[in-house]
Structures are given as structure tokens and as C-alpha cells.
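Q: Two folds, back to back.
A: First:
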Amino acid sequence: MRKMAKEYEMSRESMRTIVKDKLKMIPYRMQKGAFLNQKNKTLRMKKTRKLLAGTKDGSHLTTLFTDEKIFTVEANKNGQNHWIIVTDYQSACEKEKILNKTSHLASVMVFAGITADDKTPLNFVDSGVKVNQVYYWEVASRQFSEFISDADWPASSPDLNPMDYAVWIYLTEKVSSKNYPSIKALKTALIKKWDEIDDDYLRAVIDAYPKRLKACVEEEK
């Protein structure tokens, strides 16, 4: 808004009014996404249609959706979106509003899965261990029978995985809003918030799954 207002020699308020009220446009933050070539797009659509057809019998309600994610001991904040008004830099530091960015953060990888009414324990993956389908089965198959194999899952599709589009976002919001003094403290916070995820939330998350598949298919039409 500032750059456009300067270019057209008007106030930011006037530019904001034009964009919002006259043009009915909404600002969105740029986000990274996977690039799919035509071959991958075709394959993604084929697998998505198959998964959507499979939801008609309600089997997605008992399907185990899994994923892994890395959490760090440092708060997950974007300096461009978190401002503080103080008289000087030192005051901000004293109020713990300045985040010290380090090159090699202490971190932990977690693996977990959910169904519409249940979830696996939150598993901490040892350093150097490759999380793959074999690991999924070793950890989760003892408790859950339904599972989507790598061969059936659309590539580069975090928008279709409930763990990506809802669960990790929820856990990040609950846990990664502050710094932690140690990995142990981070793990304690992760376990606590994971255990607090209730069945109502899980059901709502899984109920969105067929809708996302359908939206993906309709977008291609």
C-alpha cells in the first residue's frame, strides 16, 4: 500500500480505500509452495480422484494420517509481523521482544498421526533416523489398520494431509510462540499440547479432508 500510494502520489489511507472498497481486493502474504510440472499435476489429479472416491464409504474416518515435523527451541515469529513500540532497542531486549536468531538451533523431529476420533502418541525421532513408510508402520500399525500408502498419496500435496493443513498449524500456534531453555522443555510442551487435542477437533479436521479433495478435483475442471 505504501509503495503504490507513493507511486500515485496519494495517502496510504486513500489507496487502502480504493483497493479494499472500490476494487474489493484482499491482501495475501506470499507463501512457498511446491512446483508441479504437467506430468505431476496429472498424476496428482488421478490419485486425488481415487482418494475422493474412497471417502464415499466413510473409510477416511478410520484412516490414519501421518506426518513428521521439526520444532525448534526458538520462538517461531516473523519480525515483519511482530512489532513493539519502545523508546530504544535496549528496552525491547529487556522486555524479551527481540529474538536472537542463531545459525544452528536445537531442534527435535516429531512423528504422529490422527484419525477422526483417535491419535497416536507423539513420537520423538532420533537424530539420523529416516522417517519413511516402514517407520510409520512400526510405530502406528499396531493400533491403526487403515493407512494410505506412498504409492497412493498425491505427491507435493500438504494441502490434502490433515496433519499439514490443521494439526501442525495448531501445535505450532500453541507451542512455538516462545523460546525454550532446552530440548527437554520443548518436548514437555509438545507432549502437553498434543495430549490436549480432543476428539471434536480431530473430527472437524478429518471432516475437511473430503472437501479438500473435492476442491482439488473441481479446480482442474
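A: Second:
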Amino acid sequence: MAKPVDPEKPGRIKQLRMIAKIIQQANPKGMPIVFLSAVATLAVVIVIGLVTGWIWYSIFIGIMLAFTVGLIVFGQLAQRAQYSMLDGQTGAAAAVLQGMRGNWEVTPAIAANRDQDLVHLVVGFPGIVLVSEGPGNRVQKMLVGEKKRLQRVVMDVPVYDIQCGDGEGQVPLGKLQRHLMKLPRNLKKPAVNQVKDRLRSLPKNLPMPKGPMPKGARMPRGPKMR
């Protein structure tokens, strides 16, 4: 028996069109770049086929490679477009963090102040990562306070603090995921799950900032290649 189609879930073609519109709004040259990268890849492979005498084989391989290159460029431009849309919004770092692949658990806004500066909690293989949003001179005190509070509960687990922003010593929004992925893998999966369980017992009593946080703003992961 076939599964009923969810009317709220867009189809693959519709989803690609939506992402293409986002790319076009952020960068009018985006979709032409995707098209030209695919065509250029096909042309190079065909030229190689003409030189080697394997023209029909090269056409088949060229189409596959052109499709693959087009998808890669499409995904990269979609990610950049989403970053540009989120940049400057309250909770942008949390939206980017929640789009990470792998065994990461993100708790947005575990600390906030009246200036809408935020601190987000991330648990993964590196241990615990605190990610702040806001000017460095304001968020540093928040990071120190949250780090001390967490270390009382998980004394043996590494705790990192990262300031997300465009200021000196901060990590830009577009490089935040990559920065976390470069952290050392200090814990194995069972230990990560234990840390998650221990942190869930912490009380959650914080003043939420004024203004909306991005809802459903996870990074597009792009179409999957089959």
C-alpha cells in the first residue's frame, strides 16, 4: 500500500526551484554560474574524447560529470545565499548550527541579555561548545559565566567557547560550521550521549531576548546525488 503524500512537503523539483529563487535573489549571477560550470565541464570532457578517439564514451561521462559539478556549485551557492539572508538576524548562529550533519545536539539561547546577545549550547564529539552572538565586549562575560556553570556539572569534559560575528577574533557566520568541524574529537559516541543526558538535568531559567528568532531556517543541504 502506497504511503499518502504529505501536501505540506514540497516535491524535489519544487524544492529546487525554491532554492534557485533564493540563489537568484542573493546573487543574480548565481544560476548562470551553475549553468556555465556544468557546460564547461561537459565541453572539457568532450574535447578530451575527441583527442583520444573515445567521443561517445566521453559524452556519456561528460554528462554525468557536468551534472555532478552543477549540483556541487548549486549547493555551495545555496549555502552562501542562506548565510547572507541570516546574517544580522537574532539567532542566525543557532540556525546555522542546527543545520550541521552528524551527532550534534544544539540548544539555542541558553543565555541572553537585554541587548539580544545570545549564547547557544552545542554538544558533540569535541565535547561542549558555547557559541555566542553579539559584540565581543558584551558576550565575553556571558561565555565565562556559562562555561563555569557547565564545568561544575561536566568537570571532565572539554568546554570550548566561540564568538560568532564579524569582529576581531570572532568567527564569521559563513565559517561557523567549518570551525566546529575542525575541533578535536575528544569524545566517543557513548560519552557524547552521557554528556547530553547530564546537561538535560540543568535548570532552564533564562530571560528570552526581544524580537523573533529565525524559524525553520536550517541550511539547505542541497539535492542528493544518486
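Q: And?
A: The beta strands are 105-112, 118-124, 127-133, 159-164.
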